[in-house]
Amino acid sequence: MDAPALELRGLTKRLPSGERLLTILDRVDLAVAAGEFVAILGPSGSGKSTLLGLAAGLDRPSEGEVRIDGRPIQDLSEDELARLRRGRIGFVFQSFQLLPNLTALENVLLPLELAGRAGPLERARRLLGQVGLGEREHHYPVQLSGGEQQRVALARAFAPAPALLFADEPTGNLDGATGARVLETLAALRGETAATLVLVTHDPAVASLADRRIHLRDGRIERIESRSGAPAPAVVGAG
Questions:
Q1: Burial (0-12, 13-18, 19+ Cβ within 10 Å), 100
Q2: Beta strands across the sheet bearing 63-68
Q3: Where residue 74 falls among pLDDT bands split at 50, 70, 90?
Q4: From CA 164, how far away is CA 197, in angstroms rounded?
Q5: What's the rounded Cα separation, in Å, for the pair 7 and 54?
Q6: CATH architecture label of 35-61+75-226
Q7: Residue 214 above 60 pLDDT?
Q8: What is the reported pTM?
C-alpha cells in the first residue's frame, strides 16, 4: 500500500509565553492521500496556519512527525528541506509574497531556475497565459491588482509541478468575485497536475469544494467531515 502523500503523527507545537509554554497544536494525527483536497477550518487561534507551516517544512514541531511520501522531514537540515520544497512542495500565501523587484514573469521563472528545470521561460509564459496574465508578464507586483498578484502566485507555485500544494487563505485578501476567479484558476491548475492540496480557509463555501474538511479547535482536531457532510472514516487526531 502506498504511503500517504502527507502524514502528521502526534504533531505538537509549543511556544514560550511569559514564564510558561503555550500549546498551539496538541498531538495532531492526520493522513492525506495522494491527489486529495483537504480544507483546514477553525476559529482564529485554532492552529490552522501553524499546522500548514509545519506540514510544509517551514517550521519545526516541538514534538511529533511530519512525513511526506512516507519520509520524515522534521529532522532534515535546512538545505535538505530547501531541496524538498523545490522539488515536491508548492505554497500559496494569503499575502501573495511576490518579490517586488521582479516582474510577474521573473517571479514565475524563479522556482523553475532554482530547480534547474528545462525550458523555464516557455513554461513560465505558458502558466501566465493559463492564469490570464500573458499580457502582463513585464509588470511588477505593484502594477497588478490583488487578484492578479494572487494569480501570479498560483502560477509560481505550480511552475515546478509540485506533488503537494499548501495554500494559506489564498482568497482571504480578495473580494468575492476576485476570490472566485482565483479559486477557479487554482482548480484548473490542480486538475492538470493532480496535486495533493491542503488549504486553510475560514470560508465554508471554499471548504465545501474539498474532499474532506478538518475542523480545528484549540490546537486539536475537533472533527473531520467528508464532502457529503458525513463524518469521514479517517485518521483523526489529537489525543
A1: exposed
A2: 20-32, 6-17, 63-68, 71-72
A3: confident
A4: 6
A5: 11
A6: 3-Layer(aba) Sandwich (3.40)
A7: yes
A8: 0.88
Domain ranges of the chain: 35-61+75-226
Give rounded-to-5 percent helix, strand, coil for the chain. Answer: 35, 30, 40
User: If you search the block for the grid coordinates 511576490, which residue do you land on?
Assistant: 98
The predicted model gives 93-97 an average pLDDT of 88
Phi, psi of 89 (to 5 degrees): -125, 135
Q: How confident is the model at residue 179 (pLDDT cuts 50, 70, 90)?
A: confident
**Rounded to an integer, what distance in angstroms lies between the CA atom of residue 73 and that of residue 70?**
9
User: DSSP of 79-142, one letter per residue?
Assistant: HHHHHHHHHHEEEE-TT----TTS-HHHHHHHHHHHTT-SSHHHHHHHHHHHTT-GGGTT--GG
At residue 154, the 3 state secondary structure works out as helix
